[in-house]
Specification:
By secondary structure, this protein is an alpha+beta fold. The protein has 11 helices and 13 strands. It folds into 2 domains: 122 residues, Beta-Lactamase (2-Layer Sandwich), CATH 3.30.450.260; 169 residues, Reverse transcriptase/Diguanylate cyclase domain (Alpha-Beta Plaits), CATH 3.30.70. α7 packs antiparallel against α8 and α8 runs antiparallel to α9.
Length: 344
């Protein structure tokens, strides 16, 4: 079917994926969209069945059978790329001189648009594909905005969670973060050491040099603790001048002692502040999860605190490792005090 030259622009506009065939199946003309599919170098002059495979109806193996399928839906794919699937319908010429095939991508339009760089200009103005492309574009834009919003919400959630678990003054973890981590370690059965530290003479700094000096000291302590700990360790500020260090995987007691002594030594150095010096030290007490048949967060915190105050009683600037004797001594001391109060 030879399309008159004067009608070619109209065919190209209304049927941009058409092929006109001669009676023996030679391609005489194609719409502009088909020329973008990389079918071959010169599609005109080629035989239709050399370039396309008709998968349905199954009995179409010849050009005569192709023309005989007048009005039936054709399912095709390119011989050089089976992933490019097409649909079409053939209209034989009334004078038995070839015919016209109009093709479309069907549901494969999304892949085709992406693969061949097609735009709305490559389809007929009234083609429903245009509406589909608009919907896809709108959906893509909406999904993109949704992803951006989700990323912003995720970032905001992370920031909010980080703030909820961070001490506002020092930037260390806070008590909530400490409690959460201790619970995780116990639930997962990961052994750990828990060290409780309390500054000595901190009240004197606040009383003599003011709270700004006290805040300066706390930040200095936080910096030293962070410098002396490993990436796997956690440092938390759990009170005014109280800190907890969590050391996972139970480092040897000798290393715990060395770590505590380094902290104590560094904090015995005067801390400069606005032409003056802040004098503090630190007392520490440690307990280890392996000391317990079934570790309990509250009990371990009490025992670390008990060891801490044993260090205070030694004269401060000291470290004590928790033992059962400390608990016995505390019980005996409490009973003696109660007896004295009863006699009084």
């Amino acid at each position: 079917m030879q399309i008159p030259t004067s009608l070619i622009p109209t065919f190209n506009k209304l049927l941009p994926m058409h092929l006109s065939l001669s009676g023996n199946g030679e391609i005489l003309h194609t719409g502009p969209t088909l020329e973008k599919l990389n079918i071959c170098t010169n599609i005109c002059g080629q035989n239709f069945l050399d370039l396309f495979t008709v998968s349905r109806p199954r009995n179409i193996k010849t050009i005569d059978a192709l023309f005989a399928s007048n009005g039936r839906n054709l399912h095709l794919h390119l011989r050089n790329d089976e992933t490019v699937k097409l649909k079409g319908v053939i209209i034989p010429d009334a004078d038995d001189d070839g015919g016209l095939i109009n093709l479309s991508f069907g549901i494969g339009v999304i892949k085709a648009v992406t693969t061949f760089g097609l735009t709305s200009a490559d389809f007929a103005p009234n083609d429903l594909t245009i509406e589909m492309l608009y919907l896809i574009e709108a959906k893509s834009a909406a999904m993109d905005e949704s992803r951006k919003l989700n990323r912003r919400l995720q970032s905001a959630r992370i920031v909010a969670e980080e703030k909820a678990f961070t001490d506002g003054l020092t930037g260390l973890k806070n008590r909530r973060a400490m409690d959460d981590l201790l619970k995780q370690l116990i639930d997962k059965g990961i052994p750990f050491a828990l060290m409780h530290l309390d500054l000595d003479y901190f009240k004197a700094v606040n009383d003599t040099l003011g709270h700004a000096a006290g805040d300066h000291v706390l930040n200095r302590v936080a910096k030293i603790l962070s410098e002396e700990t490993r990436d796997s360790d956690t440092v938390a500020r759990v009170g005014g001048d109280e800190f907890v260090v969590i050391l996972p995987k139970n480092p040897p007691i000798e290393k715990i002692e060395l770590f505590a002594n380094r902290i104590i030594k560094r904090l015995q150095q005067p801390i400069p502040f606005k032409g003056d010096f802040c004098h503090v030290s630190v007392s520490a007490g440690t307990t280890i999860s392996n000391f317990y048949t079934k570790p309990d967060v509250d009990q371990m915190l009490l025992d670390a605190d008990l060891a801490l105050y044993a260090s205070k009683h030694k004269g401060r600037a000291a470290h004590t490792l928790y033992t059962g004797d400390l608990r016995k001594n505390e019980t005996a001391g409490s009973e003696t005090e109660a007896s004295h109060q009863k006699i009084a």
